Amino acid sequence: MLKQKIVFLGAGNMGEALISGLVNSGLAGKGQIIATDIRTERLVYLKKKFGIQVSENNKKAVQQGEIIVLAVKPQQIKGLLGEIGDWVRKEQLVISIAAGIPTKYIEKFFQQRVPLIRVMPNTPALVGEGVTVLTPGKYTNEKHLKIAKKIFSAVGYVSVLPEKLLNAVTALSGSGPAYIFYLAEILDEAAKKMNLPEETACELVTRTILGAGKMLKITGESGRMLRQKVTSPGGTTEAATKYLQAKKFKEIFIQALFKARKRAQELAPK
């Protein structure tokens, strides 16, 4: 169990996922967590649901915390850092989940040598199946990384990579759930056009995606190998995949990820 008091500056979906993971896993007690947000109704909801402390005062919350989680949108990070920068101490650990914002940009707002960890999580953390990649800042040591790993392990898988790879991670696993949801959306539409009952089609799509994911995880085989195993010569799967290949689906999809990475790079303040 963590002993530190944890402050969430921003309490959107990802903040809620982390709070839920911490409380439900027993990693942190309700009294150890403080959440702030500009939306009063959001704070009322979180206090009622988790029994945590809430505040509308970022500076006051920062002074009470030992671990500070920056959980606002990238576009809001400059304003937040300008507000709290002078109040953050070197004894604290700051964790940022703002996509595209480099550690060196955040560190320049602090008056002291504050340990900082930049994090790229994803939304399946809401159901305990998140994927999170950490990268340490200039003044971060193994003890700080161990704490961050504990926090994010409460909502899924955790890895550590150099910061230069974080924008690629954002494009792959950060945005990745949306690609799978988009595929589900397309499969739903196709099922409707083929006159499958809506409720049954939804169940078929959901369980097909879930089952395929489990096969990747449990077998340890690559997507290519599993696809080849399920593709019989002259069969239905081959007919579909050949059509996708003819339309250059792979090339289009890879370029889409490069677009996402480029956008993550653009989010970095100049």
Which runs of at least 5 residues are low in confidence (pLDDT < 50)?
Answer: none
Q: What is the 3D form?
A: elongated
| End-to-end distance | 39 Å
Number of strands: 8
CATH fold group of the largest domain? Rossmann fold
| Strand-pairing-aware structural class | alpha/beta
Number of helices: 12
Quaternary status of these chains?
single chain
Q: Mean pLDDT score, rounded?
A: 95
**Helix/strand order:** EHEHEHEHEHEEHEHHHHHH
Order of strands across the main sheet: 3-2-1-4-5-6-7-8
Measured on Cα atoms, how large is the radius of gyration? 21 Å
Feature tags:
single chain; 270 residues; alpha/beta; Rossmann fold; ProC C-terminal domain-like fold; 8-stranded mixed sheet; 53% helix; elongated
Give a brief description.
This protein is α/β, with parallel strands linked by helices and 270 residues long. It has helices at 13-25, 40-50, 58-64, 77-84, 103-107, 142-153, 166-174, 176-193, 198-219, 223-230, 236-246, 249-267; strands at residues 6-9, 33-36, 53-55, 67-70, 93-96, 116-120, 130-136, 156-160.
Layout of helices and strands, plus pairs?
Elements: E1 6-9, H1 13-25, E2 33-36, H2 40-50, E3 53-55, H3 58-64, E4 67-70, H4 77-84, E5 93-96, H5 103-107, E6 116-120, E7 130-136, H6 142-153, E8 156-160, H7 166-174, H8 176-193, H9 198-219, H10 223-230, H11 236-246, H12 249-267
Parallel strand pairs: 1-2, 1-4, 2-3, 4-5, 5-6, 7-8
Antiparallel strand pairs: 6-7
Helix pairs in contact: 7-12, 8-9
